[in-house]
Amino acid sequence: MTRRLITLAVAAAAIVFSWSVTPSQAQEWRGWNIHPPDYPVSQGMDRFAELVAQRSNNRIRLRPYHSAQLGQQDEAIQQMRLGSIDFAEFNLSPLNNLAASTQVLTLPFLFRDVDHLHKVVDGPVGDEIAADLEKAGIVVLAWYDAGARSMYTRRPVTKPEDLKGMKIRVQTSDLWIDLMRALGANPTPLPFGEVYTSLQSGVLDGAENNWPSYESTRHFEVAKYFATTEHSNVPEVLAVSATRWRRLNDADKKLLKDAARESATYQRQLWAEREKISRDRVVKGGAQVTEITDRAPWAAMMKPVYDKYASDPRMAKLVEQIRETR
Ligand code: GTR
């Protein structure tokens, strides 16, 4: 290409760009995420950003910061409520203290399988919980998968009694503290990013998470006994700060919601694939897996958790609605 042609091409591109977006209209949104770039959540957020950029002609540019570049989850929740983080992908547990109804989805041994969970979060129960979060400044656009969480420890655990007195890391949520106490363990709330070194140094005896996080954090190197307790299926949300949301017109709100839901379909596919991949990787990396085939003794120990968190009329009704969802 001659110099002149290049200049013309650049000028034409600039005109096209300026038609689709003027600098005063363009918005760049900062997005929080705890996971590394190749994780299903991160890829879902990247897809969300691409769709929004395309469909808004680059008027709304979403920039996800992966790998906890913008801090750990508790700080990120506060920043989002203050409006300094515009969107994020959050696990529901650290939101428990912000909107009590979110606790329902964290409850142990509640979901029959992943289809059951999808029907619940994509239906009226999900909407009701999302409405509570919106009042707390967090607008849920879509629900992402986070699989089932299981226990992993530095010493083998095959039955609940083995956990007695063990220091187990939990997310910062009262329900998780009570859940771990009900199992006889000693719950230790800690940010996700501090778990590896605490397991390594022996400050913790164990933690709990899904296969992909057990793998991506390399916790399997320092707590190699994984027992498939699958005690909670707490899901995650892709959300926008209420401050941003209120400034959008209806067309843009729809654009964002549609893009978020499409990204969730994609994330759920990636999630299902990654669960298997991660399991293979940790086993190759030395993890010792104990299959828990009978979860009844574990579930039976959860009565105090249900008594405390699922007995007021609203919670009891939500639990019933969830159990009846087919
Ligand atoms: C992961 C989840 C994160 C975070 C983490 C944790 O499975 O995706 O958002 O909640 O667990 O245990 O802190």
From TrEMBL:
Residue ranges annotated as transmembrane are none
InterPro entries, sorted? DctP_fam, TRAP_DctP, TRAP_DctP_sf
Pfam families referenced in this protein's UniProt entry, alphabetically:
DctP (PF03480)
Which top-level group of life is the source organism from? Answer: Bacteria
Keywords on this record?
Signal
Signal peptide location: 1-26
Q: Which NCBIfam families match?
A: dctP, TRAP_S1
The protein's name in its UniProt record? TRAP transporter substrate-binding protein
Q: Which organism is it from?
A: Teichococcus vastitatis
